[in-house]
What we know:
This protein has 185 residues and is mainly α. The protein contains seven helices and four strands, in the order αββααααββαα. Helix 3 packs across helix 5 and helix 4 packs across helix 5.
Amino acid sequence: MWREAPTRPAGLARYFSGRWSGNYAPFGAGDLAVVGSRPYAASMTTPSDDQIAMLANALDTFSRRYKLTDTGADRPLTELDNQVLLFVAGHPSCGPTDVARFLDVAATTISSATDRLVKRGLLNRQRLEGDRRAVALTLSEDGEAYVSTYKHAHDSLFRMMLERLLPEERETFLHLISKIAHHDD
């Protein structure tokens, strides 16, 4: 049985942070084995150099072809900044520690990101009355507009990508990309 994907969406940066371990599960054909905490099909082996080069070429082409331009003014936002905005959009009045925990980054990293986003007018920080150390994060009007545009652009892009595939290819692709994305080391 395959392990279920996590229910909360991880940040895009975390999707591709894992590395292939090259483990081999020496069992009968069609069997699944658990190596560490991951299930492996019996036929899994270390990828060849040609397969790695083919994947690298495909991902390079993919990232160039489907690159989204930033919807913000002046400089583009970092991927971390985008993920902070998306998290705050889904969790209004959350604290920086909540964001750091979800994105699995240091609190100081989130502090720097929130400083940048406040300066750009995309995020609001409000001190809580009962605890002057606690901070609630919310999107500003510009932040809400940015997140809306960001989500719409990504949804359109993802729709265009999936429309190029036959329905059964879509299911296979989504299964495989989810398996890679939710791979835990």
